[in-house]
């Protein structure tokens, strides 16, 4: 259910619970960035993308829809879906959250 999330919060959320979730996420992010072998592996995977896939990827990670990506790049939505699928395979990701 979390699909890559650090935690799952239900409304209404207590301030202390929210603060703990944010601290946990920041620490997890810092730990991931601190491991250079993970970074070099990620860099290699990103380098394996084609230039067009990199264009799609840069927009995709901002959370916009396929339709918006298509409009911004001037390509068809089906083409975006094909690039998105190829990106997921090349980056060995099961979801956008994994990316």
Tell me what the structure shows.
- The protein has 99 residues and is mainly α.
- The chain has two domains: 1-34; 37-99, Winged helix-like DNA-binding domain superfamily/Winged helix DNA-binding domain (Arc Repressor Mutant, subunit A, Orthogonal Bundle).
- Helix content is 65%, strand content 0%.
- It has five helices and no strands.
- Helix 3 packs across helix 5 (77-90).
- The radius of gyration is 16 Å and the shape is flat.
Terminal CA distance: 17 Å
Q: What's the helix count?
A: 5
According to CATH, the fold-level topology of the largest domain is Arc Repressor Mutant, subunit A
What's the CATH H-level superfamily name of the largest domain? Winged helix-like DNA-binding domain superfamily/Winged helix DNA-binding domain
Describe the largest sheet: none
H/E element order = HHHHH
Instruction: Tell me the number of structural domains.
Output: 2
- Percent in strands: under 5%
Find the structural class using helix and strand composition: mainly alpha
What is the subunit arrangement here?
single chain
Ranges where pLDDT stays below 50 over 5 or more residues in a row are: none
Mean pLDDT figure? 85
Could you outline the blueprint of secondary structure elements for this entry?
Layout (H helix, E strand, L loop, with lengths): L14 H20 L1 H12 L3 H10 L5 H8 L3 H14 L9
Helix pairs in contact: 3-5, 4-5
Give a quick rundown of the structure.
The protein is built from 5 helices and no strands. With 99 residues, it is an all-alpha fold.
């Amino acid at each position: 259910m979390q699909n890559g999330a650090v935690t799952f919060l239900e409304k209404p959320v207590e301030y202390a619970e929210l603060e703990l979730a944010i601290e946990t996420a920041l620490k997890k992010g810092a730990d991931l960035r601190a491991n250079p072998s993970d970074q070099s592996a990620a860099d290699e995977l990103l380098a394996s993308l084609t230039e067009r896939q990199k264009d799609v990827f840069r927009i995709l990670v901002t959370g916009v829809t396929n339709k918006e990506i298509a409009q911004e790049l001037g390509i068809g939505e089906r083409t975006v879906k094909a690039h998105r699928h190829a990106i997921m395979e090349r980056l060995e990701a099961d979801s956008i959250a994994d990316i």
